[in-house]
């Protein structure tokens, strides 16, 4: 069973349908005890960092997610869900994230000449070929983004893939059982489906 953590934001049902396409059983949940009973979990999301953390805290989920990670079960963050894995965000000064990865979430700088938000397709540069989430994903595969902020992770060895958009930014993070993607795999056609299949079939 794969838990899909519901904190009132994001395209939960499209993620659910994509996972179920590969035969996964899913449970949309807001409850820590239900999360603890599932073999894998996904933290999706579209929205604001502060609102998301407030809702997760109301539901008692930060401690439950932390325990889930410590128990070495696979966890995937998508877009805002990935950003919540970090310590803080420029979008919400003073609001603490889940602190699974070290680093901050930063806003793209308009001085680089890029449009904000970053909406559309971009090419993956794969930096960790040993990342299980990226098995079978060719170099320069295109994935779909919709974001104004990006993770600036401190430990570069945890960066599994990157993209270029005004700057070089992390698009996939990975450490042991925890994975995060800044793009939307459920909207990224064959490449995104391959990534979700890889997550579903993780042992």
Number of strands: 13
CATH top level is Alpha Beta
Listing every helix as H and every strand as E from the N terminus to the C terminus, the arrangement reads EHEHEHHEHEEEEEEEEEH
Helix content: 25-40%
Within the CATH hierarchy, at the fold level, what is the topology?
Rossmann fold
- Integer tally of domains: 1
Task: Provide key terms for this protein.
6 helices; alpha/beta; 13 strands; 203 residues; 8-stranded mixed sheet; Rossmann fold
Summarize the structure.
This protein is α/β, with parallel strands linked by helices.
Explain what you see.
The protein is an alpha/beta fold and 203 residues long. It has one domain: 3-Layer(aba) Sandwich (Rossmann fold), CATH 3.40.50.880. It is 25% helix and 31% strand. Strands 2-1-3-4-13-12-11-8 form an eight-stranded mixed sheet. A three-stranded mixed sheet has the order 5-6-10, with no helix packed on it. Strands 7-9 form a two-stranded antiparallel ribbon.
Task: Describe the secondary structure blueprint for this structure.
Layout (H helix, E strand, L loop, with lengths): L1 E4 L6 H10 L4 E4 L2 H5 L3 E4 L5 H10 L2 H10 L4 E4 L1 H4 L4 E2 L13 E5 L10 E6 L1 E2 L15 E6 L1 E5 L5 E7 L1 E9 L2 E4 L7 H12 L3
Parallel strand pairs: 1-2, 1-3, 3-4, 4-13, 5-6
Antiparallel strand pairs: 6-10, 7-9, 8-11, 11-12, 12-13
């Amino acid at each position: 069973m794969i838990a899909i953590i519901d904190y009132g934001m994001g395209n939960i049902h499209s993620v659910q349908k994509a996972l179920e396409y590969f035969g996964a059983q899913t449970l949309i949940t807001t409850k820590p005890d239900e999360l603890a009973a599932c073999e894998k979990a996904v933290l999706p999301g579209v929205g604001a960092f502060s609102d998301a953390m407030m809702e997760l805290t109301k539901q008692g989920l930060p401690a439950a997610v932390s325990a889930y990670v410590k128990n070495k079960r696979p966890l995937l963050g998508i877009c805002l869900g990935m950003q919540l894995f970090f310590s803080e965000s420029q979008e919400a000064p003073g609001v603490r994230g889940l602190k699974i990865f070290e680093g901050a979430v930063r806003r793209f700088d308009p001085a680089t000449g890029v449009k904000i938000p970053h909406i559309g397709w971009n090419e993956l540069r794969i930096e960790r070929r040993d990342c299980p989430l990226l098995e079978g994903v060719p170099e320069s595969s295109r994935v779909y983004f919709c974001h104004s902020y990006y993770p600036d992770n401190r430990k570069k060895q945890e960066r599994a893939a990157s993209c270029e958009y005004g700057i070089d930014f992390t698009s996939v993070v990975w450490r042991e059982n925890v994975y995060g993607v800044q793009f939307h795999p459920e909207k990224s056609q064959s490449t995104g489906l391959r990534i979700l299949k890889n997550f579903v079939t993780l042992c």
